[in-house]
Each structure stands twice: as structure tokens, then as C-alpha cells.
Design a protein that fits this description.
Elements lengths: L2 H52 L2 H10 L15
């Protein structure tokens, strides 16, 4: 065989190895990003539930009455300019 064919075979083999390694690297990045997406989705769900629990009208009313000593006025006055 001539030198040209050997060089072509070696270059082709090198490019094949490089392509396989590049594919593995991309797959690893994809798996890491997928894991991060799942983690962020779970955290978002937890935060939405926590927000709804903290902003529940009954809880706000209880805190206003007990901690802030607020109460509903007996009479309502509307001031006109």
C-alpha cells in the first residue's frame, strides 16, 4: 500500500475517535442539564406550594389578628372630600 492510503486510514481513525469522544462529552453535558432541569422543576413545585401556604387568606387573617393585634372595625366610615 502507498503512504497516501496509510495516512488516510490514520486520519480517518483519528477523526472517528474524536467524533466518538465528542459525542460522549455532549451526552454527559445533556445528562447533567437534564438532572438540573429535574432538580429545578422540583424546587419550583416546592416553592409554589410554600407560597400558596404562606399566602392563604386564613393564615394572613390569623397573623393580622394575633401578632399585629388588628381587628375588624365595628363601623365603617366613608369620608367624602
Amino acid at each position: 500500500m502507498s503512504w497516501g492510503i496509510w495516512v488516510s486510514v490514520l486520519v480517518s481513525a483519528f477523526l472517528q475517535v474524536a467524533a466518538v469522544q465528542w459525542h460522549r462529552d455532549l451526552l454527559q453535558v445533556w445528562q447533567q442539564e437534564t438532572a438540573l432541569k429535574v432538580q429545578l422543576s422540583q424546587e419550583n413545585t416546592r416553592l409554589v406550594l410554600e407560597k400558596s401556604a404562606l399566602t392563604a387568606p386564613g393564615r394572613i387573617d390569623k397573623i393580622a389578628r394575633e401578632e399585629l393585634k388588628m381587628h375588624t372595625p365595628e363601623t365603617i366610615r366613608v369620608l367624602q372630600p
